[in-house]
Give the backbone structure.
Amino acid sequence: MESSPVKKDLVVLVDEKLDTSHQCPLAAQKANNILGCIKTSVASRSREGILPFYSALVRPHLESCVQLWSPQRRTDMELLEWVQRRATKIIRGLEQLAHKNRLREFGLFSLEKRRLWGDLIAAFQYLNGACRKDGENLFSKACCDRTRSNDFKLKEGRFRLDIRKKFFSMRVVEHWNRLPSDIAEAPPHSRSSWIGL
């Protein structure tokens, strides 16, 4: 049996150290190829012509299974954001604006912010939704009477390996604990409205 430094699991590349940085160039390449097809096949360069294609065909490749392989290195984050930067530059009329200003003009958010929102939504679903049993295994509630933001705080684990701190169940805890109580303790049926994507 041949050994391999990288294995594919759930369409995500993971190496023997549980590092998923191999996934970022792959996702960026797929998304960039589709963006190239859109650029050559769509005649209109208007916002209405490009943004729906980008949202439906390109961005899903940059966000699929992202709770598992969320980029941790700044170079990987910039590689993914470069695809979105390229997509917004295709649209005529605002090419001279800075990337942040173009995102604001088009009503888009950075992929980093979308990943954070995705993490919080996934945590909410694990803790309150259809995956409650799995959520109890992924997260543990912190025992603390003094809570500034919400009463449903999660416990932060301690680990010797830095890679473990980057896992979904660890990286989302700090952000979850800062949520106001009306969001963290919202009923499951309201999960689609408490934060917008």
